[in-house]
Amino acid sequence: MKPYYDDGKGIKIFHGDCREILPSLSHVDLILTDPPYGLGDKWQGGGGGGKSSWRFDPAEAQKWDGKTVDCVLSLPAMAHECIIWGGNYYNLPPSRCWFVWDKKQPDTWTTAQAELAWSSLDRPTRVYRMAQCEAHGEMGHKAHPTQKPLTLMTWCLKFTSTPVGGLILDPFMGSGTTLRAAKDLGMNAFGIELEEKYCEIAARRLEQEVFNFGDVN
Known about the structure:
Elements: E1 5-6, E2 11-15, H1 18-21, E3 28-33, H2 46-49, H3 51-55, H4 58-74, E4 79-85, E5 99-102, E6 114-119, E7 126-129, H5 130-135, H6 150-157, E8 167-170, H7 177-184, E9 188-193, H8 196-207
Parallel strand pairs: 2-9, 3-4, 3-8, 5-7, 8-9
Antiparallel strand pairs: 1-2, 4-6, 5-6
Helix pairs in contact: 6-7
């Protein structure tokens, strides 16, 4: 399949449904992704500000559940290591290492104070705090409604065993944050995205100069 974008240096974007594209890809070093949870309508308060409500109405969220669950559950077998944001919404195997994003939100019933990522890594649970995002000026405009901070995804990569030149896959690419983090660290990365407008946004982000965030641990 011809990439939507190829920088000629190991970064590629594929436009399409990941369920159709994944079978054509080989085993990778790492999967780092943030799939749509599609579950906001199932939890108290979830429909009002949950992840699914950014992009889907409740009816669409219900349709999306059946489309993504099997795909997400198949991801760990496709990579040496795997990190899945929102992994607590899926019936994945027990994990020793959960990634926690402490969002420094107020203590209310409707606002999530943290997000969780399931991982296959054999290391203790790690916590990333919002102050680390703020220190890099990442609290402004987002190109995608559920976009993760670049420093958060860069932080995730530094806990993996993926070598420089290793291949990372993000089958739910969004605006390309995983690919941008991989490029900044000298890693190869493939992204898959269903919506063409986000493929274009990601391509523009990848054309920018490499950023140096220093120590984001």
